[in-house]
Fold:
Amino acid sequence: MIEVSKKCIGCGKCVPVCPFAAVQVMNKMAVMNEACTLCGACVQVCPVEAIVINREKASARDHSGYKGVWVFVEMTDAADKASAKKIRQVTFELLSAGRRLADELKEDLCAVLLTDKNHGYEKELGAYGADKVYLVEHDELFEYNTDIFSTVIVSLVNRHKPSMMLYGATIRGRDLAPRVAATLYVGLTADCTALAVKDGLLLQSRPAFGGNIMADILSPNSRPQMATVRPNVMKPGAPVHGRLALVVRESAKIDKSLRRVKVLERKIVNECGAVKIEDAKVIVSGGRGMKTKEKFALLEELSCLLPGGVVGASRAAVDLGFKEKARQVGQSGTTVSPRLYLAFGISGAVQHIVGMKASDVIIAVNKDPNAPIFNVAKYGIVGDVHEILPKLIEALKK
Ligand code: FAD
Ligand code: SF4
Ligand code: SF4
Structure:
């Protein structure tokens, strides 16, 4: 709450500093309106200390009613309403991580599923560790929409009061989680690479300052504690088929006016290379050793010859403009774990390795026999990429 005391001399110095046009001087007194966000800018300029902001002490709040670890279930898009969607891999990774947290806290692990139609998704969610599935089925949930999904999740959180909530650090999760956090007025740790329980709180670890240090973050004063987690960082546990999750059906009144963005056309693109790099089963990556953008383009040709192949890049290749940043693999790019990772002209700096070492099979081509990439590669070819790559493409074409 903001208050102006009788000390006010009506000087008006607080008016221009307010970023929200929330203050005006009336009858020689400053008056704040409902646009005030309690930012405190006016307090600092008042020459007579007339403005006082009384903030609720965050630490004084009682969080004992907040229980359970929630995971937002991310679905693929479906071509039409008759087709079933799939649960995205990142959800299973989050459920496996969430299971460990819930076991340590002795609380339930709950999956939050928003969809137009449930095609028995609770079976897979249960197999990966969910005790409960909060299911909201509604026609308006056929396709993802920030306003609608965040409104539904906020109402579920207010109703059931989870202690923690996890989202994938995917395009969708990065869009949804901040909106939910802002509406609930709670914190959010983005892009976590490790999660643990410390003194009953969620310990959230993530790279900071461009990846030069790891930061451990706690949110003791707000609930739910919310985090987005990078895909492919946490390996999902083996599913226990037949393990059942209790389905809790939740009603939702979804007003159409909530939808501020209209989708005019939907296209499911199946062209080669259209798969997101974090979901790819085969990645053909190139580094500085590819030399030019034109030569780098040969990797596109190779990726199209390998089913499910997409092109990745080292940071040096991205900096040189060979490939867009979204395809950068590594600490300040994307973490990947494909079945097959091919590295052409990449030295294997630690910042690159950290983003791809979880790949099942790594094959590296480098002219330097001492290149560190060979330390993580299962198969290595010492040679010139510009001789080897065209031959490999030729052989695959045959
Ligand atoms: P180089 O290290 O220059 O290696 C080129 C390789 O190509 C060499 O091994 C060379 O022997 C080989 N080569 C050259 N010509 C040929 C040829 N004709 N045939 C065969 N081989 C050849 N890097 C990332 O990749 N991802 C990240 O997310 C990332 N994040 C970072 C974050 C921070 C905070 C910092 C400080 C750095 C980060 N880096 C990252 C950069 C990283 O340290 C390296 O600089 C980068 O990975 C090097 O890319 P490269 O292997 O393509 O290039
Ligand atoms: Fe404006 Fe911030 Fe002062 Fe509120 S606290 S009146 S928002 S400057
Ligand atoms: Fe009153 Fe202080 Fe604002 Fe001046 S700066 S109008 S004294 S509240």
Remarks:
- The first strand starts at residue 2 and ends at 4.
- The pocket of flavin-adenine dinucleotide (ligand 1) is lined by residues 210-212, 287-289, 314-317, 328-333, 345-347, 349, 351-352, 355, 365-368, 371, 384-386 (CB under 6 Å).
- The CA atoms of residues 5 and 250 lie 48 Å apart.
